[in-house]
């Protein structure tokens, strides 16, 4: 607006008074505008910014994320996270491991996700892994709350497939002394039940390893007694569109689950990867928790190569939540993990 044009506008009558207005009312419109604005700003200066003292909430949104695979819906569910002492547990060239951690802005301790995956086939609700429950402290054990937040109840789970019987995958089978998934059939590879449910193996294990056996026995036994444990052996079709695929090495019966619908595919890896920043570039890096490190390394190579060649989605139990992405083979014949872009659905 050109305020000078207002002050120079011709008067309808001569003299200081027009249509009964006083001299005070006849003040220049531009001056009236700025006087009013100044008064408003002065008033604003006395308002206290009360929002500046709002407390920090220090919590995240509920941990679930959905993706469609053909006619199926996959929901990634967070069981939480905890700190992994990477330099202590990872097996490989220490200098290369340290350099890779620094390159990815990581230190000796890495916050590691614990992810489970719910497969809704339209006819069945299948949960892959049960999280840690109360076995690893308060930073994990959030599967049930996130399952409910995602719109499902534990009683609705028809089938529960375990990638293996480590504590962070079976602890959530029990809640407050009861089966957390009372209507679910729990399925697991025979090699893992033979190994981890054996009291003879537990007695022969080093003292620091006995807790793995104790966790497996305490978590699986109530389902066994209820007639809810079903053991399979190797590559097995389970429900239409979902099959077990052997990935032995991390544990004797470690298993991946392949989900396919209408030509689309996702492979739920379990513990093929623990530290994505290292192991995709160097599949030879293993972890102390591997029962057979050489076999685990072979599974890394096989899983990465197949995913890169065929371009399907993979889901990792310990890849940063939601743990969903694809694998790309780089020019130097190394692999890169490519997380899925966020989608509103």
UniProtKB/TrEMBL annotation:
Residues 113-318 form the Metallo-beta-lactamase domain. CDD domains: OPHC2-like_MBL-fold. Residues 1-22 are annotated as: Disordered. It holds the Pfam family Lactamase_B. This is MBL fold metallo-hydrolase. Belongs to the metallo-beta-lactamase superfamily. The chain crosses the membrane at residues 33-52. The keyword Transmembrane helix applies. Keywords: Hydrolase, Membrane, Metal-binding, Transmembrane, Transmembrane helix, Zinc. Residues 1-11 have a biased composition (Polar residues). GO terms for molecular function: hydrolase activity; metal ion binding. The keyword Kinase does not apply.
């Amino acid at each position: 607006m050109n305020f000078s044009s207002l002050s120079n506008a011709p008067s309808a009558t001569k003299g200081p008074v027009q249509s009964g207005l006083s001299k005070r009312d006849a003040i220049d419109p531009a001056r009236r505008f700025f006087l009013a604005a100044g008064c408003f700003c002065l008033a604003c200066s006395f308002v206290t910014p009360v929002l500046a003292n709002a407390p920090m909430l220090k919590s995240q949104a509920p941990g679930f994320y959905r993706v469609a695979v053909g006619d199926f819906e996959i929901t990634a569910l967070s069981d939480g996270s905890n700190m992994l002492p990477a330099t202590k547990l990872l097996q490989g060239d220490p200098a290369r491991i340290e350099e890779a951690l620094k390159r990815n802005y990581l230190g000796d301790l890495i916050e590691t996700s614990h992810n489970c995956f719910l497969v809704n086939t339209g006819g069945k609700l299948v949960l892959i892994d049960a999280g840690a429950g109360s076995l690893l402290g308060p930073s994990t054990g959030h599967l049930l709350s996130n399952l409910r937040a995602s719109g499902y109840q534990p009683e609705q789970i028809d089938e529960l497939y375990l990638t293996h019987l480590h504590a962070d995958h079976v602890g959530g089978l029990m809640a407050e002394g009861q089966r957390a998934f009372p209507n679910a059939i729990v399925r697991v590879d025979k090699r893992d039940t033979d190994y981890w449910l054996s009291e003879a193996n537990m007695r022969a294990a080093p003292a620091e390893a006995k807790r793995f056996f104790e966790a497996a026995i305490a978590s699986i036994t109530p389902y066994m007694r209820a007639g809810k444990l079903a053991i399979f052996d190797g590559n097995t079709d389970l429900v239409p569109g979902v099959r077990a695929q052997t990935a032995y090495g991390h544990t004797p019966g470690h298993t991946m689950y392949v989900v396919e619908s209408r030509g689309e595919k996702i492979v739920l890896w379990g513990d093929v990867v623990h530290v994505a920043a290292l192991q995709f570039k160097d599949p030879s890096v293993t972890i102390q928790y591997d029962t057979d490190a050489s076999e685990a390394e072979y599974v890394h190579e096989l899983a990465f190569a197949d995913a890169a060649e065929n371009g399907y989605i993979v889901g990792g139990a310990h890849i940063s939540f939601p743990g969903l992405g694809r694998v790309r083979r780089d020019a130097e014949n190394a692999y890169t993990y490519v997380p899925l872009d966020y989608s509103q659905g």
